[in-house]
């Protein structure tokens, strides 16, 4: 039986308690609990406990946007994977392009974070993707393969990892890769995963990069696309529900 598509909403550094409460309320009214897709809400760390309480018993899962590689210690301002699990998280994003570019995260550090997350029972959503320069110079495939080789733990499998392919040039820009390009690189990622570990069959590969209601259906139907990592559209209940419904093959409910 095929695994359900995964739709993960990354709120990034947005929303406060009141606005997040309203968003979750609107998503509930719109039928998010009835989706056949696996929905993951990924708010800022300040909202994790609040969202965990609001989505309890809804079938919706909670994720975090990052974690430290150590489980405890003198790391002011950081949050460990153990703390995230205690707060109710099931997932954690690692290696997002914004973390790589703005905070200098390396492949080695992402791998250490992945190991820590798995130890704490979290499923890492490991992001990979190429820059516009790498794509235009024909280096996209090599760049993504190198990230997969260096970021992932050796025992990577469908039970402890999700991959999110996000072309860096499409994140937050409104641009989206063409379906043929998405299909090609997702197939490349699948082959790279098999090379990393023959037991990697079934690892979901999400597409991320300006996913919105207008393009969700044509992206989610592509081979090897196991769902979507949604940014800005996840902050709009109508748009997020439309993407979820595109993944689960249902028509949108009015909210």
Would you mind describing this structure in some detail?
The protein is α/β, with parallel strands linked by helices and 255 residues long. The chain is built from 10 helices and 8 strands. The protein has helices spanning 17-29, 48-54, 81-86, 97-103, 107-119, 132-136, 140-151, 179-196, 213-220, 237-248, and strands at residues 6-10, 38-42, 61-64, 91-94, 123-128, 162-165, 205-208, 227-230. The protein has an 8-stranded parallel beta barrel with strand order 1-2-3-4-5-6-7-8, surrounded by 6 helices. Helix 7 (140-151) runs parallel beside helix 8 (179-196). The protein is globular.
Layout: helices, strands, pairs:
Layout: E1 6-10, H1 17-29, E2 38-42, H2 48-54, E3 61-64, H3 81-86, E4 91-94, H4 97-103, H5 107-119, E5 123-128, H6 132-136, H7 140-151, E6 162-165, H8 179-196, E7 205-208, H9 213-220, E8 227-230, H10 237-248
Parallel strand pairs: 1-2, 1-8, 2-3, 3-4, 4-5, 5-6, 6-7, 7-8
Helix pairs in contact: 1-10, 7-8, 9-10
């Amino acid at each position: 039986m095929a695994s359900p598509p995964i739709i993960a909403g990354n709120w990034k550094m947005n929303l406060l308690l009141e606005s997040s409460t309203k968003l979750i309320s609107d998503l509930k009214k719109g039928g998010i609990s009835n989706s056949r897709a696996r929905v993951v809400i990924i708010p800022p760390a300040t909202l994790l406990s609040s969202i965990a309480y609001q989505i309890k018993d809804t079938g919706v899962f909670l994720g975090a946007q990052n974690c430290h590689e150590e489980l405890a210690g003198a790391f002011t301002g950081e949050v460990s994977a153990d703390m995230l699990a205690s707060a109710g998280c099931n997932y954690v994003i690692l290696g997002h392009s914004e973390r790589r570019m703005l905070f200098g995260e390396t492949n080695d550090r992402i791998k250490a974070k992945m190991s820590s997350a798995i130890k704490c029972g979290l499923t890492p959503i490991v992001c990979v993707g190429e820059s516009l320069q790498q794509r235009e110079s024909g280096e996209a495939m090599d760049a993504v393969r190198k990230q997969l080789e260096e970021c992932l733990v050796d025992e990577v499998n469908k039970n402890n990892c999700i991959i999110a392919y996000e072309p860096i040039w499409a994140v937050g820009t409104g641009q989206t890769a063409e379906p043929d390009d998405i299909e090609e690189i997702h197939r490349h990622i699948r082959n790279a995963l098999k090379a990393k570990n023959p037991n990697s069959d079934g690892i979901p590969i999400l597409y991320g990069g300006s996913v919105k209601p207008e393009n969700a259906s044509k992206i989610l139907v592509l081979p090897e696309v196991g769902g979507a990592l949604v940014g800005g559209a996840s902050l709009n209940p109508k748009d997020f529900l439309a993407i979820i419904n595109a993944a689960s093959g249902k028509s949108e409910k009015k909210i």
